[in-house]
Amino acid sequence: MDPSAAARVRAALAELPPEIATTDPDILAGYARDQSRFTPSETPAAMLAPRTTDEVASAMAALRRHGVTVVPRGAGSGLSGAANATAESVVLSLHRMDAILEVDPTNRLAVVQPGVVTAALRDRASSAGLAYPPDPGSVEFATVGGNVATNAGGMCCVKYGVTGDFVLGLEVVLADGRVVRTGRRTVKGVAGYDLTHLFVGSEGTLGVITEVTVRLVPAPGPAHTLVASFAALPDAGRTVTAIVDAGLTPSMLEILDRTTVRAVDAMSGMGLGDDVHALLLVQSDDPDADEVLARVEGLCEQHGAADIATSADRAEGAMLLEARRLALPALERLGDWLLDDVSVPRSRIAELIAFVEEVGARSGLTIGVFGHAGDGNLHPTIIFDDADPAARAAARGAFDEITERALHLGGTITGEHGVGRLKSGWLAVEQGPVGMELHASVKAALDPAGILNPFAVMPREAAGSR
Amino acid sequence: MDPSAAARVRAALAELPPEIATTDPDILAGYARDQSRFTPSETPAAMLAPRTTDEVASAMAALRRHGVTVVPRGAGSGLSGAANATAESVVLSLHRMDAILEVDPTNRLAVVQPGVVTAALRDRASSAGLAYPPDPGSVEFATVGGNVATNAGGMCCVKYGVTGDFVLGLEVVLADGRVVRTGRRTVKGVAGYDLTHLFVGSEGTLGVITEVTVRLVPAPGPAHTLVASFAALPDAGRTVTAIVDAGLTPSMLEILDRTTVRAVDAMSGMGLGDDVHALLLVQSDDPDADEVLARVEGLCEQHGAADIATSADRAEGAMLLEARRLALPALERLGDWLLDDVSVPRSRIAELIAFVEEVGARSGLTIGVFGHAGDGNLHPTIIFDDADPAARAAARGAFDEITERALHLGGTITGEHGVGRLKSGWLAVEQGPVGMELHASVKAALDPAGILNPFAVMPREAAGSR
C-alpha cells in the first residue's frame, strides 16, 4: 500500500470508535475475498464492524473525508468477487447488525438488520405462520443484506421470484454518510423514483444497506416432489418447455446434466446410471400439488423419460432431491472449479447445455451443468487444475465462451450471482455503450468520489492480485 | 408564451418531419391535461406523435438542443397531472407506436410498443392462453407505456402485483436522444443496476419509454365471487385483517364505505340499504377457489357480516361486483370530485376510513371511500362544488388532511396514481430531505438540462394555471 493511502486510512480510523475497527492482519486475512474464483483481491487495510446505523454513517463520513475506498461485506459467501478487498480499502462488515427488528403477520412484512442470516429470517417468518421464500444455496450462512446487495436467487424463484421481489424498503447510508429511507411498509406505493430497487443488486457500489423491510407470504402447503431421468438431453429440454407451456408453475424445476449426474454417482454411489443424460427435479407446493405433479409426470412420459419417481412425503421428497443437493459438492471433488451463472430464455436451456458439452469436448475440460431449468438460470461448472497455467487459461476461455453463448441465445451474463469483479468486463458487452454511460451517470450521482466498492460491477482498471 | 420560447419550439420543430408535429390549437387543446383535478395545466406549444424509436430519438435530440421542455404522454388517463402540459412545452404522445411486437408463450413474455392499449395486451395474452394481470380502472383506454410510466395498479394487485412487477425490460430514449435498452428477456437477471425499475413509475421525468417487455403468467382459473355487507365499519376492517391472517390471498379484496354504498343505491336502485356501513367484495381464482371463499365466508360471519352472497358463476359474479364498478360513477353524480389515492398497512384500513368519515362530518363535505382493501390502497373521493371557492378550499384541505393521516398511519401518499403535479408537495414530506436530494441527484444524472416533464414528481415552482 502506498504510504499516503495508509495515512488516509489511519486518519479515518482515528475519528471512529476504536472498538469497531481492527487492523489485526490475522483477522484482516479473512476479509480479503468472497467465495469466487478468478477474481483479484488483497488483504484490506482495516475492517470496520459498526453496531448501529449511526456508526455506519460516521464511518462513511470519515472514510469519505479522507478519500478511503470502502468494500461493504455481508457473509462473504458471494461468487463473483463483489466483496473482494484491495490493499488500500477498508472492509465494512455488517455482521454485528444482526437483529430481526419486527415481524408483522397482518401486514405480512419483517424489518431486519442487514447482518441477519437469511435462514434465521426464514425460520422466524415460519414461526409466525408465514414464509420468506428466497433460498440461495448459501441460505444457511449468507445474510439478508448481502442477498439484497446481490439480488440473490435460489431454487424457489421459478414460482416466487428473487430477493428483490421481496424488498419493500431500505435504510441506506450513502457514500458521504447521509442516511436515507426508501420504499415503504405498504403493499403498494408509487411515491417517487424506485430508489429501493436501484440499491437492490448494486453490490455495495451505491450505498451501504443498514435496514431491510421485506414482504412475507403465506406459508405454502407441503411440497410434492418428482424426479425424472432422461436418456437424451433434448428430451429433458422439451419437457421443461412442455411444463411451462401447460401453464404449470412448479415451486422448483431443476436440471442436472450427464456430467453432474456422473459426479454425483461417483461421490454417493447413488447409482443413477451412465445412461442418464439429464435429470429433472420438480416440486409443487400448490394446493393441488398432486394434480400438478400428475400432469408433470404425464409430460415427462410423453417426452421419453426413462425413470420417474414421485413422493408426497417430505422426508422421501428430500431423498429424491439428494442428487441436486450433491451437485456442486460432487463436482468440487473432481478438481478446482469455476462456477458460471447465466440465464437464457427457458426454451433455450437444452441448446445451452449442448453447447457446454461441445466446449467441454473441444477443450478437454470436465464441465458439469446444473441449475434452475424453470427460469433458465444455469450454472455450468468448469473443473480444472489450478496449478496448471494452461488449464487455468482453458477454464477461463471456456467460461467466456459459455457466457457469450448465453448472451447470443437471448440471455444474460448473470442470473443470480451478480457481476462483481468476475464479470465486470462482460457487463459492457451486455449493456452496450449507452447502458454503460447510464450506469456511470447513476454511480457518479450517488457516489461522486467513487469510494464505494470501486472495482465491482463497472469495468475499471483492475486492482489487487489474486 | 414568451417569444424566445416560441422561437425555440419553432426551431426544434423545423428539424423534425412535419408529419409528426402539430400546432393546430384545436388539437393541442386536447393535449393540455390528463384526468386529474386541482392540477395546473396549459395548452402546449406543439404536439409530436412519432412513429418510431428513431423519430422519438431525433425529436428528443432536437428539443434538447433548443432547450424545449417535453411532456411525454400515453392516453392521458392519469389522475395526478403527470401528463399536464405547460405553454412552453411540447407534448410527446406515443399513441402512434401501438404495435404488439411479439408474444412468446414458452418464455411467457410479450414485447409491445408504449401506445398499445392495456386491454389489447390483456386480450392478446389471453388468446395465447396466458394472462397479463395489471388491471387499472382505465384498462380499456390507458396504454402500456403510460401504465409503466406511472407504475399503475388495479384490483388484481393483492394477488398479482402492480405493473412494475411485470416489466422485464425497456427501451428508453434519454433526454438527449440516446437510446438505451434495459433489463432482459429472461426470468432472472442481475447484470448491473436495475435501471428498468428506475424508469418504471418515473412519470416521464427520466426518459421516454419506446418499448416494453412484459412478463406474462398462466391464465388463472375462473374466479369465484363473494360479497358481504357489514352494519359496522370496524367489523369489515377486522374481516380484512382476518382474511390476511388466515393466509388467504384472494385475487380481489375490495371495500366500499357507507357513503359510497348510499351513492350506488341512489344511482342504481340496487337497494343495498341504509344499514350497510361497509361492503366487502372478494374474488379468488385459486385452483381451490371454492374452499378459499368458504373460509372467507366463515370469517365474514364470525366478524358480524349482515348479508353474504357468493357465486361460482362468472356472469353472476359480475353482477355481485356491480356495486364496485359503479362506485366512482355514483360518487361523480353527486358533484365535482377530487380523488385521493393513499395506501396504508392493511391493518389500518378501518382507522383511515373512520378518519375520513370524521373529516367529512367536520367539513360538511361528502367523502366516499372505496378501494383495494386487500393491499391497503384506498381512494377517498371528495365531493364538492367547483364553482364555490370556499368549497374548493375545503376539498383541498380535506384531501391534504387525509393524505397526512395516511402517512401518519405508516402509509404512503400514493398507492397507484402517482405523484404527478397533484402531490409533488407531499413527496418531500414522505421522502424527507435526504430522499429528495437523492431524487434530485438521479434526475440531474439522467436529465441534466431538466427538459423532461420538469413540473412532475419533484416539487418545483408550479407552472401553468388551471
Automatic annotation (TrEMBL), chains A, B:
InterPro entries, alphabetized: FAD-bd_oxidored_4_C, FAD-bd_PCMH, FAD-bd_PCMH-like_sf, FAD-bd_PCMH_sub2, FAD-linked_Oxase-like_C, FAD-linked_OxidoTrans_Type4, Oxid_FAD_bind_N, Vanillyl_alc_oxidase_C-sub2
Q: Which residues form the FAD-binding PCMH-type domain?
A: 40-219
* Keyword Coiled coil set for record: no
Q: Which Pfam families match?
A: FAD-oxidase_C, FAD_binding_4
Source organism superkingdom: Bacteria
> Which SUPFAM superfamilies does the UniProt entry name for this protein?
FAD-binding/transporter-associated domain-like, FAD-linked oxidases, C-terminal domain
Keyword Iron attributed? no
Q: Which UniProt keywords apply?
A: FAD, Flavoprotein, Oxidoreductase
The cofactors named for this UniProt entry are: FAD
Give the protein's recorded name: FAD-binding oxidoreductase
